[in-house]
Amino acid sequence: MILEEIMQAVRECGQILLGAEPEKAVQVKDGQYNNLVTLYDKKVQNELQKQLLNIVPGAHFVGEEEDVHESIAQGTAFIVDPIDGTTNFIRGLGMNVISVAMTQDGAVEMGIVYNPYTDEMFYARRGKGAFRNGKCIHVSERPLHQGLTLFGSALYYEGLSDRTFRILRLCFDHSMDIRRFGSAAYDLCLIATGRAELFFELRLQPWDYAAGMLIVQEAGGTVTTMEGGEISPSSPSSVLAYGSNVDVSFLSGE
Q1: Residues near 66 by Cβ (< 8 Å), separated by ≥ 6?
Q2: 69-86 per-position pLDDT tens digit
């Protein structure tokens, strides 16, 4: 079955990260001091590309560490982030993941997110539910005032900083507490497992959110743009994800 083959490929690539020495392989990306990439990002992506295209020959491949990205509008495509949370990886925080989404004609059909440090494999197929290490998962039923807000700071887009922290203040006032873990794909899985109640970030790339979005949706949660619209995995987007008993109406006036 394709899903199991993809998960096995992802798990094997996780071993590359577990044996890595990331501090010896750091590069600055796009001239931004806070946008880092390592040789391991490229190594994992190359290995995933080889294995995934062996599983589904002829599929399109969209990886973060590419200069030009193929269209996912028609046919089968893989959207891959080899290390989501690269700064966490470099600093040895153990909170970075491999994220793979498989799309069909532009719609996400499978999502896999793997944290090799905790050996947590999150995955979903459209219409088949969401799972963590073989066990079905579901979003939290807590209201936000009893829950946690997770957020991403969209740090590569300075023009979004003020709005991010205005929204965060609103969330802080309506939540039990807030957290920032530095990996959007992992944050989305934390929403899917009910460990937190709300996540937002004002601009993410498809490889950051595509797999996690499906996992949240199949776990009974909601994922939209910040304005409440549908997200297309073919382009950058804001992302708002939350559990089944979270009222987000307080964000309408931000």
Answers
A1: 45
A2: 888 999 999 999 999 998
